[in-house]
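Input C-alpha cells:
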C-alpha cells in the first residue's frame, strides 16, 4: 500500500462518495492520512457564535482543514426587537437572544476575526458563498441545512430580518486581502446594491483579491421591503413605495457603470451570472431593469467566458448581440431571464443567436418583452410568458445553430402567440 504515489491516491479520493471515503480510510494508516483531506470538502455556517466557533475548531485540525474547498456563510440578521412594528409573542423569547447575539457579532467583528485566523489554515479553499437575502424563507428548501437550530426556533414566515447592507461583503473582501487567499468561485445571494455606492478607488482595492476569479454569481437585492406596521412581507412590491424607491435608486446607481468597471478587473472569468429582482410595468418601454451597457462594460471581452446568465435586464437586441459576438469563440451556455428589449424584436434576436453562435446549452425564461420592428408581421409590443410548450421550444431553436433540432426551422415566437400586456404580471 505504501508504494502508491500520493498524487494517485488523492486523485482516487476526489471521485469517492462520503461512504466510500470512510471505507477507503479504513484500509490502512496511509490511506487514512491521505483521505483525511477529503472527509469534509465543504462547510456551511450561520452567523451565530456556535457555528463560527465550530469553524475555528475545524481549522485547528491540520489534516481536515487542508481539504476544505468550499465555505457557505449565511449572514441573515434578525431585526432588533426595538425596531419591530409588531408584538413578539412569549414563545418567541429566543428571538431576542438570537438578535442580541448577532448584534454582538457585528459590533465586535467576531466573524471578521474568526475568518482572519482560520482562512490561512485552508490552503485549498477556492469557493465562497454568502447568503444575505433578508427574505430567507423564500429559499427555505435550499437553505434548510444551513439554519440548523436557528430555523427550528420559529415558524416559517415569522422571522423578521434586516437588510444585509455591505458589512459582510466588505468584511470578506478585507479578509481575502489580508490573508492573500486566492479564490476562484464567488456567489453572493441577496447583495445589497449600496455596496457599490462608493468611489472607484475603494472598490478597485476591494476587488483586487478577486483577480483570479473564474466564477462570479451576483444576485442583487434591489426591491427591499421593510417590516411595515405588522403588514405581511408578501405585500406586492408595486404597492410599496419603499420598494419602488429602492428599485429606482439601484437602477440609477447601476447606470453610472460602477458595476461594469468592477467586472473589468476580473479578466479570468469563465462564468458570469448577474441577477436583479423583477419590477414589471404595463409597457415594456417603461420597464426599469438594469441597463445592460452599464452593468457589462461595452467593448470589454473576457477571454475565457463560457457561461453567461442575465436576469431582469433592459437593452436593445443590437447591444446584447454585440456582447454575445465578442465572446463567440468561447461562449457555450446562455441563460436569459425576464429580459426586455425596449424597441427591438425578440424574434430577430433569436434568429441572430441561432445563426451567429454555437451554444451547447440555452435557457430563456419569461416574461420576456420587446417590440415588433417595421419589417415584421406584427406591430406594437411583444410579450411572451414562455410557459409550457414555448418554454420547451425556444432553447432548442438556438442551440448548436439549430443543428440538433432540424425540425425547428422557424422561430417558436411569433405575432400569433405574443400575448397582450394586461398588468404587472401576466
Amino acid at each position: 500500500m505504501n508504494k502508491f504515489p500520493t498524487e494517485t491516491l488523492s486523485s482516487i479520493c476526489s471521485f469517492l462518495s462520503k461512504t466510500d471515503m470512510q471505507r477507503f480510510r479504513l484500509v490502512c494508516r496511509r490511506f487514512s492520512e491521505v483521505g483525511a483531506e477529503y472527509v469534509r470538502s465543504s462547510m456551511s455556517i450561520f452567523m451565530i457564535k456556535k457555528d463560527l466557533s465550530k469553524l475555528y475548531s475545524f481549522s485547528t485540525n491540520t489534516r481536515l482543514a487542508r481539504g476544505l474547498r468550499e465555505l457557505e456563510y449565511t449572514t441573515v440578521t434578525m431585526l432588533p426587537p426595538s425596531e419591530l412594528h409588531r408584538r413578539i409573542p412569549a414563545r418567541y423569547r429566543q428571538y431576542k437572544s438570537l438578535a442580541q447575539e448577532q448584534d454582538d457579532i457585528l459590533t465586535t467583528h467576531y466573524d471578521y476575526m474568526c475568518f482572519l485566523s482560520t482562512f490561512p489554515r485552508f490552503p485549498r479553499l477556492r469557493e465562497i458563498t454568502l447568503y444575505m437575502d433578508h427574505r430567507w424563507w423564500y429559499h427555505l428548501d435550499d437553505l434548510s441545512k444551513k439554519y440548523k437550530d436557528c430555523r427550528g426556533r420559529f415558524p416559517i414566515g415569522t422571522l423578521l430580518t434586516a437588510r444585509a447592507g455591505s458589512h459582510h461583503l466588505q468584511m470578506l473582501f478585507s479578509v481575502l486581502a489580508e490573508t492573500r487567499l486566492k479564490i476562484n468561485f464567488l456567489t453572493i445571494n441577496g447583495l445589497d446594491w449600496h455596496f457599490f455606492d462608493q468611489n472607484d478607488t475603494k472598490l478597485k482595492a476591494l476587488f483586487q483579491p478577486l483577480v483570479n476569479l473564474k466564477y462570479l454569481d451576483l444576485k442583487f437585492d434591489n426591491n427591499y421591503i421593510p417590516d411595515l406596521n405588522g403588514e405581511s412581507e408578501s405585500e406586492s412590491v408595486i404597492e410599496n413605495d419603499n420598494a419602488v424607491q429602492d428599485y429606482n435608486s439601484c437602477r440609477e446607481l447601476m447606470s453610472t457603470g460602477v458595476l461594469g468597471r468592477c467586472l473589468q478587473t476580473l479578466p479570468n472569468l469563465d462564468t458570469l451570472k448577474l441577477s436583479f429582482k423583477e419590477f414589471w410595468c404595463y409597457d415594456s418601454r417603461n420597464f426599469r431593469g438594469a441597463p445592460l451597457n452599464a452593468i457589462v462594460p461595452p467593448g470589454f471581452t473576457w477571454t475565457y467566458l463560457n457561461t453567461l446568465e442575465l436576469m431582469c435586464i433592459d437593452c436593445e437586441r443590437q447591444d446584447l448581440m454585440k456582447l454575445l459576438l465578442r465572446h463567440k469563440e468561447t461562449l457555450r451556455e446562455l441563460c436569459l431571464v425576464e429580459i426586455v428589449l425596449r424597441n427591438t424584436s425578440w424574434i430577430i434576436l433569436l434568429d441572430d443567436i441561432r445563426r451567429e453562435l454555437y451554444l451547447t446549452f440555452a435557457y430563456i425564461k419569461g416574461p420576456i418583452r420587446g417590440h415588433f420592428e417595421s419589417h415584421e408581421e406584427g406591430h406594437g409590443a411583444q410579450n411572451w410568458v414562455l410557459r409550457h410548450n414555448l418554454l420547451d421550444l425556444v432553447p432548442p431553436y438556438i442551440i448548436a445553430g439549430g443543428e440538433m433540432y432540424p425540425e425547428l426551422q422557424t422561430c417558436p415566437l411569433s405575432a400569433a402567440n405574443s400575448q397582450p400586456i394586461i398588468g404587472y404580471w401576466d
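Residues 93-108 form the longest helix (16 residues). The radius of gyration is 24 Å.
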